[in-house]
Amino acid sequence: MQLPTPAEYAPYYAKYMVLVPDGDIVGAMDAQLREVVDYFRPVTDAQASVQHPPYTWTIKEVLGHLNDCERVFGYRALRFARADRTPLPGFDENAYAPEGQFNRLALGDLVAEFDGLRRSHMSMFRNLPDAAWTRVGEANGNPVSVKAIAYILVGHVRHHMAIVRKRLAPSA
Fold it and tell me: Least crowded by CB within 10 Å, which of 25, 70, 110, 149?
């Protein structure tokens, strides 16, 4: 599968698209899932609860954000894949994060939640009819294709995991 064209997503998402190569996007989701789960296995709750300036979220809050986005983008993909033309609103991740109160949760629970959400989305995308991939809907006032949403999911996680890796890297 080829990368979505810029006409299939809002310019804001270009920063995520450049992080995802052409190819099997569901396979990329699967590989990413294993990578995320494996990465967090040795991380402690204490490490995941620290805020690392200049960032405003803890690692737990980043994972909570990823889970929220999996849900929102997965819902958008389902609606548009089923040819629902109803425009969908945007969401403010900076308002969602404190309301999730993610720091009260165990890191393992947040990772398990990501695992379940991603597996659900992989099943959905894997089972889409060919015509569904090119369907376009409107989200947050912008057109977005089902295919672009799949790529956004992968690119968004790659973006945040790069930041998490820097934050948790041992000091030299």
Answer: 70
